[in-house]
Amino acid sequence: MTTQDPRPLSEADILARLRAGEVGVAPLSIQWRASARTQGPDATARVTWGGRSFRFVAKLKGRSIPKVFAAALAQAKAFAEKSGDNPMVVLPYLAPERLEELERKEVSGIDLCGNALVVIPGKLFILRTGAENKFKESFPIRDVYRGTTSLVARALLLRPSTESLNDLDQFIRSRGGEITITTISKALRRMEDDVLIERRGGKARLLQPEELLQKLASAYRPPKIRRRLVGTTRLDRDKLCRRIGGVKTTVVLSGQSSTDRYAIMGREDRIRLYCASVSAIEESLGPDFKPGDRFANVELLETDEPTVYFDIRRNGHVPFASAIQTFLELSAGDKREQETAEQVRTLILTEGRKPQVRK
């Protein structure tokens, strides 16, 4: 069973475990020593194998979040360049993607769970992976990239830099969202830990839009639907949206039904609409809508989840879902939809790079 350490480990804690032999990388023999240099590496390691000996300079860190990993990696490489030894990082846990990054950059890494990469180009390569994380960290908000909190990430994809928390809050509200300043702050802190943004003072700037979009896709769950009603109508999409445009309820096409707004793909026969009140839509359509599954070409989905109503794009009477919502729905669909999602992904990233006009 995975255990959870109640507090972050210190560099001294980690070194003590290493020197006590709690961490091993068979078939290597490793001798650890604390570094005597206050401005240098935290430890040195002598690795012996097959009668040969290799010297490493190691940076130890007590947390495993991407921001800390990135800092440890940069510091280890700097120490190695200065000393002429081989670079190494030691963290509580190295996820598979961290080991892959270390391999690409030819830097060794060992964790306290049993995962390790010891590499010297052309001389040594040993990889140990598959051990679970025994040092999982808790965060103020668990699902930063899902639900209402994901509005912060979605907003940064639309406008990659922000001057302050209030500035970001106003931008989110201008696109139809609502979220507390406290939640915005916590979400930004998590994204900074994930090395997706950088923060200086009150400002925040998006560093990795592709990775942020991928995190949203990985975390995405379809909105919770309170009520679903299907039926038939002779009205085409434009006329249907014109008829319900005056209804006093929030309404928007689903991402799937908004696909042709952002990508080349045949339009579905069924029109799907998110709305705050199915009853209000049904009443406004009157005899032009007949409930029933037989030959249904309209689907009304009642939900109060704010993500589907964020950044609605209107074209005449038609309220299209945002490009981001469309991308997320397509990414969670079948193979054809996933292929189409790549077109929308390109559009989102291209629009995010354009100079932003602030009002």
Structure report:
The structure is a single chain. This protein folds into 3 domains: 11-128, Trna Endonuclease, Chain: A, domain 1 (3-Layer(aba) Sandwich); 147-219, Orthogonal Bundle (Arc Repressor Mutant, subunit A); 227-353, Beta Polymerase, domain 2, CATH 3.30.460. The protein has 12 helices and 17 strands. The protein has helices spanning 11-19, 66-83, 96-105, 150-158, 165-174, 181-193, 209-219, 237-244, 259-262, 278-285, 323-331, 335-353, and strands at residues 29-34, 43-49, 52-60, 86-91, 108-111, 116-120, 124-128, 161-162, 197-200, 203-206, 227-232, 251-253, 271-275, 290-291, 298-302, 313-315, 318-320. The termini are far apart.
Shape, please? elongated
Instruction: Report the helical percentage.
Output: 25-40%
- Largest beta sheet, briefly? 7 strands, mixed
**Mean pLDDT value:** 91
Number of strands: 17
Structural domains: how many: 3
Strand order of the largest sheet: 1-2-3-4-5-6-7
